Amino acid sequence: AEELSWSEAQGVTFEEVLQLPSRSGDYTISYGEDSSQFGSLWLPEGNNSGTVIFIHGGCWVNEYDIEHTQAFATGLASAGYAVWSLEYRRTGDLGGGWPGTFMDVISGINKLNDLDEFDLNMERLVLMGHSAGGHLAILAGARSGLLDLKPSLVLGLAAITDVETYARGLNSCQESASEFMGGGPDELSDRYEEAQAVNYGVDPNTVLLFGTEDQIVHSSQAILPGARSLRQEGAGHFDWIHPGTNAFSRILAVLSSEL
Known about the structure:
Layout: H1 14-18, E1 27-30, E2 38-42, E3 50-55, H2 70-78, E4 81-86, H3 100-111, E5 125-130, H4 132-142, E6 153-157, H5 163-167, H6 172-181, H7 189-194, E7 206-211, E8 228-232, H8 246-258
Parallel strand pairs: 3-4, 3-5, 5-6, 6-7, 7-8
Antiparallel strand pairs: 1-2, 2-4
């Protein structure tokens, strides 16, 4: 396999993440009929240390797709993890938004059970998401009755864990939360209750990683009853998905210690 390297960085921008060297997944596999209902599978390089189901972020909107996390998945595969990175219908897509987006993620997670031919390490299974994808991953972990498999670890990277509070904010991603839910929390309280992991009891092995310099998801989102939180000094929102950062090294350290 071609060796890719990532220079050390901190406080990276979204644009810098887009410019990172990466390789495509080894396989693209559909879990539904829509063109956005697929996963990209990276097979691990070297040791088969575990399998990561990854849900990308992007404020739940279809402007941001799976492509911006190619380098992240490449980095995990280089570190010895299989990566099942999910695309899904988002706000702006027919069938996207709540609850369609979440049900896509559930279907994509469960599709992993059909991939026996790749000899994935299912004993060390991680459900991981970044930003809005962190919301979907943590909620899926809390809704274990919908899952056909049991993660060993649920990991939120700068995850939005409280959509109701988040939707009351004024930055562009916070405004996207109301679009994703179909309206604001005051008019759709029942709908927001369904989308809150805390209302189901989070998976007992849920860890939230957050950076002190995150301008998009405030550290208050890393306070979730039943979950553990780990702070990364100096990390911004996109450091988590850049394989050359201290934040990415922290992810690998958490995977190594928790699995």
